[in-house]
């Protein structure tokens, strides 16, 4: 008899293989690991390699100081003895074949204002003249304070004039106000009329006070009363003897051109010509002469601030 047919056994349940056990995954993982390893080796190898795109400039060797001969030193000293030399931001004075750097603020201020000649030199001259002791601040004992300057006229820029009152410097806004103030005090000449020049240190010691009230407009309004009847005279009579000259009417200043009065800046005119003595117009002259175009006079001595010495940085 034939054997009975086999009974079908149940199929086992499907179980997925563990992650990464597929052949494709194993190949990708292997390739990725190899790539990372190769990249790491390449980066480690490049760490010590030289980048051809970067140009390395060798550090320059420090310059050796030039040896100055005795003849060069004597020649430089003989040429610059007793003179002021400048090299970059430093100023020196040559004394006994030694260059002494100036540290005294008053001396520096005087040098920077150009009242004393300073010669700019090259490094060869500086190297040839040996360094000496610096010129330190030596003027502190001789500085004048507000007690010595009280009631005096002072200046620093040689343009603006101040009156010292209660240890404060009060600016005269214009030259006419300064002259009017002197006349009011009855000051004509002598110690009280002179303008005392101050050093920078002395100028800075005085505090800034209120500006002196201008007398120009006040005096003009007070003296010239439009309510008064002033005669009008012929122009040729009013212009006789003053054509082309500078004249004044109270605090106003004019230049007569073609029998017209052209107003001028009195401050600029008196500063440029301290000896100026304009002829005073009579009221009928002033009223009869027609007004011309005002004179254009841009002052080359405008109000100045104190000169401050600011050293420049060395470029070496």
Describe this structure in words.
With 316 residues, the chain is α/β, with parallel strands linked by helices. Among the domains are: 70-128, no CATH class; 146-208, no CATH class; 216-288, no CATH class. It is built from 11 helices and 13 strands. The chain has helices at residues 23-47, 70-80, 105-112, 123-128, 146-149, 175-185, 200-205, 216-223, 235-238, 266-272, 283-288, and strands spanning 84-87, 90-95, 98-101, 118-120, 153-155, 162-165, 168-171, 195-197, 207-208, 246-249, 252-257, 260-264, 279-280. The chain has a 5-stranded mixed beta sheet. A 4-stranded mixed beta sheet has the order 3-2-1-4, with no helix packed on it. It has a 4-stranded mixed beta sheet with strand order 12-11-10-13. The longest helix has 25 residues, at 23-47. The mean pLDDT is 74.
Summarize the structure.
By secondary structure, this protein is of the alpha/beta class. The chain has 11 helices and 13 strands. Among the domains are: 70-128, no CATH class; 146-208, no CATH class; 216-288, no CATH class.
Layout: helices, strands, pairs:
Blueprint: H1 23-47, H2 70-80, E1 84-87, E2 90-95, E3 98-101, H3 105-112, E4 118-120, H4 123-128, H5 146-149, E5 153-155, E6 162-165, E7 168-171, H6 175-185, E8 195-197, H7 200-205, E9 207-208, H8 216-223, H9 235-238, E10 246-249, E11 252-257, E12 260-264, H10 266-272, E13 279-280, H11 283-288
């Amino acid at each position: 008899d034939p054997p009975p047919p086999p009974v079908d056994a149940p199929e086992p349940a499907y179980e997925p293989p563990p992650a990464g056990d597929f052949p494709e995954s194993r190949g990708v993982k292997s390739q990725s690991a190899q790539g990372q390893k190769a990249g790491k080796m390449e980066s480690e190898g490049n760490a010590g390699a030289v980048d051809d795109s970067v140009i390395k400039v060798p550090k320059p060797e420090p310059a050796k100081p030039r040896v100055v001969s005795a003849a060069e030193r004597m020649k430089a000293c003989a040429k610059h003895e007793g003179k002021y030399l400048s090299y970059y931001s430093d100023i020196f004075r040559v004394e006994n074949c030694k260059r002494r750097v100036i540290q005294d603020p008053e001396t520096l201020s005087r040098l920077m204002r150009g009242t004393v000649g300073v010669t700019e030199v090259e490094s060869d001259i500086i190297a040839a003249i040996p360094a000496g002791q610096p010129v330190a601040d030596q003027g502190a004992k001789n500085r004048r304070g507000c007690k010595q300057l009280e009631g005096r006229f002072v200046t620093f820029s040689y343009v603006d004039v101040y009156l010292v009152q209660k240890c404060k410097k009060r600016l005269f806004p214009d030259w006419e106000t300064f002259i009017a103030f002197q006349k009011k005090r009855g000051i004509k000449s002598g110690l009280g009329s002179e303008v005392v020049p101050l050093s920078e240190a002395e100028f800075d010691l005085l505090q800034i006070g209120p500006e002196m009230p201008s007398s120009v407009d006040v005096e003009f309004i007070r003296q010239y009363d439009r309510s008064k009847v002033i005669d009008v005279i012929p122009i040729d009579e009013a212009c006789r003897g003053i054509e082309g000259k500078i004249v004044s009417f109270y605090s106003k200043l004019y230049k007569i051109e073609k029998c017209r009065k052209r107003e001028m800046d009195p401050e600029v005119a008196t500063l440029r010509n301290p000896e100026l003595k304009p002829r005073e117009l009579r009221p009928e002259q002033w009223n009869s002469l027609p007004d011309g175009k005002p004179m254009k006079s841009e002052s080359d001595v405008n109000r100045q601030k104190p000169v401050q010495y600011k050293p420049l940085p060395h470029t070496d």
